[in-house]
Amino acid sequence: MLTGKQKRYLRSQANQLKPIFQVGKDGVNDNMVVQIEEALEKRELIKVSVLQNCMEDKNVVAEQISTSANAELVQVIGNNIVLYKESLENKQINLP
User: Fold this and answer.
1) Does 90 fall in a domain?
2) Residue 1 needs a FRET pair 20 to 30 A away by CA distance; which of 45, 57, 73, 96 works?
């Protein structure tokens, strides 16, 4: 689990990131989770955008993704979800 200080740091790092995944009306599927896991391994910190036509609540989507991908949910802001997972091979972010 992340501390408040670590979450603040990650939020500041995620500020300039653009969403690299979009969740649409079909919601979260297995293929998307696999791709998100791969992206987290490469980048450690990513943003996922929840589109207007998504039938599920963005907080439910955030929980689904973070649980399925074994990632930490850093924040849900607007329609964006910020996820963090420490990389095994490409460690780039040093948490405070």
Assistant:
1) no
2) 57
Domain membership of residue 33 as a residue range: 4-84
CA angle 77, 83, 84 (to 5 degrees): 140
0.85 surpassed by pTM: yes
Q: For every one of its 96 residues, what pLDDT tens digit does the chain have, with 9 covering 90 and above? A: 889 999 999 999 999 999 999 999 988 999 999 999 999 999 999 999 999 999 999 999 999 999 999 999 999 999 999 999 998 887 888 888
